[in-house]
Design brief:
This protein is of the alpha+beta class and about 325 residues long. The chain has two domains: about 5-100, Nucleic acid-binding proteins (OB fold (Dihydrolipoamide Acetyltransferase, E2P), Beta Barrel), CATH 2.40.50.140; about 105-295, Hypothetical protein af1432 (Orthogonal Bundle). It has helices spanning about 55-60, 105-125, 125-135, 140-150, 160-180, 185-195, 200-205, 215-220, 220-240, 245-260, 275-295; strands at about 15-30, 35-40, 45-50, 65-75, 80-90, 205, 210. Helix 3 (about 125-135) crosses helix 9 (about 220-240), helix 5 runs antiparallel to helix 6 (about 185-195) and helix 5 crosses helix 11. The protein is elongated, with a radius of gyration of 22 Å.
């Protein structure tokens, strides 16, 4: 019998499926009674589940990153789907169909990595930029992490391989924009596209479930990305015996630190170069569209041409 994926859940549907568990919490309700809250996911998306009248034993019976069999019912609540669980039980690997939890296959991610390498190296003309790019691309440990990491935990590209997929999309858009506007330094824009989220390989934990590392919460991927960049610049200088141009180094660091666009969005500085402005818009375009695609694909009202109201977006979305 085929499984029901998260994005296929409808109101009032009985559920008996295996999911990946994350963000488990044991919380009191208004009457002080405990309930278990946990985020359930598969390759199609994620949904929050609640089990009423839970206790510490229920909470301790599984860990974040475990696969669990959930019995219960789906429910439409405040415009979104949730699950009211009767039971949540840890299951072994033998009870799991791995393909049900893989958004991007290993072959798909490797294909994206090849495209990344080809697009970057074929587009760069500046010898210093090429040497720097090769330091990253030839670092097997860096590339393996880059291929495995997500681009986020809950919002856009929140799955293994998501960072690679997002970066390739941003790189392809940067290639187009760099050709369209000849006043832009295309090499700078391409390197910024490649490196803007590179620090996420250290900011996020993605061995099993997706979460933030303590260091990721405390420092953040932009600062981590700048630290990684400086390490590779040092490696280029050691290999060539030449100083890496300080103006290029400063500009690249600015691209990484400013790419969220606003101080309230986490960037310590605002975009102050035309390449930084372009990168911010390109990055936001890919992330924003991917977020909207997810809302449409996971909408709890599939029979309607409109999604339910999305509080985080302040609107409904027309599905067409």
């Amino acid at each position: 019998m085929p499984r029901t994926f998260v994005n296929q859940l409808s109101h009032g549907e009985s559920i008996d499926e295996v999911f990946l568990a994350a963000d488990k919490q044991l919380r009191p309700n208004r009457e002080g009674k405990l309930y278990l809250q946990v985020r359930l996911s598969d390759k199609s998306g994620s949904v929050t589940a609640m089990m009423w009248n839970a206790n510490q034993d229920h909470f301790d019976s599984f860990d974040n990153g475990d696969f669990v069999r959930v019995e219960g019912k789906s429910q439409l609540y405040n415009g979104g789907m949730q699950v009211i669980a009767r039971g949540v039980k840890k299951v072994g690997q033998d009870n799991v169909e791995e393909d049900d939890f893989i958004t991007l296959s290993e072959a798909g991610v490797n294909k994206l990595a090849d495209k990344l390498r080809e697009s970057l190296l074929s587009g760069l003309r500046n010898v210093h930029m090429r040497r720097l790019a090769e330091q990253f691309l030839n670092d097997a440990k860096f590339m393996e992490a880059f291929k495995r990491a997500p681009a986020g935990v809950k919002n856009h590209h929140a799955y293994h391989g998501g960072l690679m997929e997002h970066t390739v999309s941003v790189l392809e858009l940067a290639d187009f924009v760099g050709d369209k506007y000849d006043r832009l330094d295309k090499d700078m824009l391409l390197m910024g596209a490649f490196l803007h989220d590179s620090g996420k390989i250290h900011e996020l934990a993605y061995e099993k479930d997706l979460s933030y590392r303590d260091s990721g919460q405390l420092i953040g991927h932009m600062v981590m990305g700048v630290e990684m960049l400086q390490e590779k610049i040092n490696a280029v200088e050691a290999e060539t015996g030449e100083a890496f141009p300080s103006a290029l180094s400063t500009h690249l660091k600015h691209l990484i630190l400013s790419h969220h666009g606003k101080l309230e969005f986490g960037s310590p500085v605002l975009p102050m170069t035309i390449e930084a402005v372009a990168l911010t818009q390109i990055d936001n375009l890919d992330a924003r569209l991917h977020n909207f695609f997810n809302v449409i694909d996971e909408d709890a009202n599939p029979s309607s041409s409109w999604t339910t109201y999305q509080p985080s977006l302040g609107r409904k979305i027309f599905k067409g």
